[in-house]
């Protein structure tokens, strides 16, 4: 059962057993019973619609959304089981995207894969010029975008796997594409951030920095934010590619900036995590593990006033978003380059120790782990009650 809601300008549709029964009987029923029955049926049907979940949640890009918060709305089972695995043949560093019950992921075999979220069956595969590294697919308006290590941006029909257009940059692409309206933004190791027409691939503008653009840019309220490898954090206007302000981070940065309100968060190779005030245009706080000096390559997830990210010190760190104060850490057996995903009060994250962990967001206590047997440097995607992550041995896992 479900309610079919009419779009603006469209007539409402009816199904068998709908409220027309009450209309046909209205000659002998008091009006209050008719209207009461209609309201009761509408409320009942709306509950059914919600429980049925006819439209599954999506995770359409790296970190789940343009703010790169790493937070999903899907209700994930408390106890996970492996639902399926897919053998890609080569390492998977690309983080999956999920849209319309389809999983999209790139592999080092130079393939963009589309798989059925339900059972992992292959829907199509698209061959790229070279291996797909850390660039993760972005799905928008029926098109899936990804970059490869030859420096090519690919746009592919999400339903058929047919190539629509390509755009060549000057060096390898490890950043993930982000779509904002009719524009696509993606960085390249040729030290340039590109803005392309999402439908055609035509160049709209480009912005050059003094180092590779490794990060995936975040976007909010008409501005895009770049945590650059040139030790500068920048705000750039999406409309015309003009720099609005910059803040010196003082360190090479491989992580992508996560946004929440007027604050941005990212880790650096100088062993720090930064909280940046976008209104004041300055660094609000710095966090550093005084006991173990290692870079932060993992991108942060933001939920419940907490900043969660992995470190190459083998720890998962949870910080207070307002102050940068350490709340808890969780120790793994190897560096944590995987970026965490958060849903339902739990943290989902991989480690290069070959294990996938589920942690309690409030305390950091381990709730579950799975031994994959190969490093998990990719980041999890969450949608439709399932969690998807790839491993360095070329296996894609779906938990649910």
Number of strands: 32
Number of helices: 2
CATH superfamily of the largest domain: YVTN repeat-like/Quinoprotein amine dehydrogenase
Helix/strand class: mainly beta
β-sheet strand percentage: 35-45%
Overall 3D geometry?
A: globular
- How many domains, as an integer? 2
| Percentage of residues assigned to helices | under 10%
Radius of gyration: 23 Å
| CATH fold description of the largest domain | Methylamine Dehydrogenase, Chain H
Main sheet record: 4 strands, antiparallel
Indicate the low-confidence ranges by residue numbers: 1-56
Which architecture of the largest domain does the CATH hierarchy give at level 2? 7 Propeller
**Lateral strand order in the biggest sheet:** 1-32-31-30
Distance N terminus to C terminus? 24 Å
**What is the average of the pLDDT values?**
89
Features:
2 helices; globular; Methylamine Dehydrogenase, Chain H; 400 residues; mainly beta; four-stranded antiparallel sheet
Task: Please describe what this structure looks like.
The chain has two domains: 20-52; 82-399, YVTN repeat-like/Quinoprotein amine dehydrogenase (Methylamine Dehydrogenase, Chain H). The strands form eight sheets. Strands 1-32-31-30 form a four-stranded antiparallel β-sheet, with no helix packed on it. Strands 2-3-4-5 form a four-stranded antiparallel β-sheet, with no helix packed on it. The chain is built from two helices and 32 strands. The chain has helices at residues 20-24, 31-52, and strands spanning 82-87, 97-99, 102-107, 111-116, 122-127, 138-140, 143-147, 152-157, 163-168, 178-180, 183-188, 192-197, 203-208, 218-220, 223-227, 232-237, 243-248, 258-260, 263-267, 272-277, 282-288, 301-303, 306-310, 315-320, 326-331, 341-343, 346-350, 355-360, 366-371, 381-383, 386-390, 395-399. By secondary structure, the protein is mainly beta. 7% of the residues lie in helices and 40% in strands.
